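[Discussion] Sanity-checking designs against the backbone

I'm trying to build intuition for which residues belong where. Below is a C-alpha cell string of 265 positions. I'd appreciate it if someone posts a full sequence so I can compare it with mine line by line.
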C-alpha cells in the first residue's frame, strides 16, 4: 500500500480502489480509513476511491503537531496534487466533514462536490462549556479515556454492537497527543469555524454541490440554511441513527450516494 510524503517528512498512508471520477474518503477523529470499508465496494465500480489516513491516525506519520483542520486539508491537497486526482468528490465523516469543507473552501480547484456524513460543525454556543471542559480534561486525564467517554455518546439502540467495540479499541491505539490536539483545535483553536455564527459564514464560501446526512434535525437546519445555490444539493436526516450512520445504515447510505453521484457525472 502506498505512502505519500506531503509536508516535512510527514507521510500519509492511502489506498486506491476502482477507476473513474475520483472520490476522496476522509475519516473522523481518532479513526482511520478503514471506516469506509462499507462504501468502497459500492463506489469502486464507477469511481476511483482514494481512502486516506490523516496525519497522526492509522498508518500515517505521527508528528508532534499540525492537528488542525487547515493543516489536515493542506496535507490532503498535497496528496491530491501528487496523485493528479483533483477535482475530487470529498466524502467525510465527523472531523472529516470539517476537513473536507476546509479543503473545498481553501483549495477550491481540488474539490467538485461534498458528501458529508453527520457533520460536527454548526454546534450551538451553549455546548461550548462542555467542549471547553473536555479540552481541560486533557490536561488532567488520559486523552484516550476522555475520547472513549465522548465516543460512548455516539451510539443509539440501533447501533450494531460490534461498532462500539471496534471504535473503542481503535481509540485506545491512537496517540494521546493526537487525540487531544485534534479536538482542541477543532473547537477552540484560533482558526476554528465549527461553533456558533462562524459556521454559517464559512459554509457560505462553498461553491460546490453538497450531499449531507444528519442524525438530528437541529444541526441539519444549519446545513440547509447554508447550502450552495445548486439544485443538486440535498440534506437527509436519519432520526434514530448514531453518529456513524454510514456504518449503521450502509445500504441506504451507499444507494443514496451512488444515485447522487450519477447525477453529477
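Best answer:
Here's mine. Compare freely.
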Amino acid at each position: 500500500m502506498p505512502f505519500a510524503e506531503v509536508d516535512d517528512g510527514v507521510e500519509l498512508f492511502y489506498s486506491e480502489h476502482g477507476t473513474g471520477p475520483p472520490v476522496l474518503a476522509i475519516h473522523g477523529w481518532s479513526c482511520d480509513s478503514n471506516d469506509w470499508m462499507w462504501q468502497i465496494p459500492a463506489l469502486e465500480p464507477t469511481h476511483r476511491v482514494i481512502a486516506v489516513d490523516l496525519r497522526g491516525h492509522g498508518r500515517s506519520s505521527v508528528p508532534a503537531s499540525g492537528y488542525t483542520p487547515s493543516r489536515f486539508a493542506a496535507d490532503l491537497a498535497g496528496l491530491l496534487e501528487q496523485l493528479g486526482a483533483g477535482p475530487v468528490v470529498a466524502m467525510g465523516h465527523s472531523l472529516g466533514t470539517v476537513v473536507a469543507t476546509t479543503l473545498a473552501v481553501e483549495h477550491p480547484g481540488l474539490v467538485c462536490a461534498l458528501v458529508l456524513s453527520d457533520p460536527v460543525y454548526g454546534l450551538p454556543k451553549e455546548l461550548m462549556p462542555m467542549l471547553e471542559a473536555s479540552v481541560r480534561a486533557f490536561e488532567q486525564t488520559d486523552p484516550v479515556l476522555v475520547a472513549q467517554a465522548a465516543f460512548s455518546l455516539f451510539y443509539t439502540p440501533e447501533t450494531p454492537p460490534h461498532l462500539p467495540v471496534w471504535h473503542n479499541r481503535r481509540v485506545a491505539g491512537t496517540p494521546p497527543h493526537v487525540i487531544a490536539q485534534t479536538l482542541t483545535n477543532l473547537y477552540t483553536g484560533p482558526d476554528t469555524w465549527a461553533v456558533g455564527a462562524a459556521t454559517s459564514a464559512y459554509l457560505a464560501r462553498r461553491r460546490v454541490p453538497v450531499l449531507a446526512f444528519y442524525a438530528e434535525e437541529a444541526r441539519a437546519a444549519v446545513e440547509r440554511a447554508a447550502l450552495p445555490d445548486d439544485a443538486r444539493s440535498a440534506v437527509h436526516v436519519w432520526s434514530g441513527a448514531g453518529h456513524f450512520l454510514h456504518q449503521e445504515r450502509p445500504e441506504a447510505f451507499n444507494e443514496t450516494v451512488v444515485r447522487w453521484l450519477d447525477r453529477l457525472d
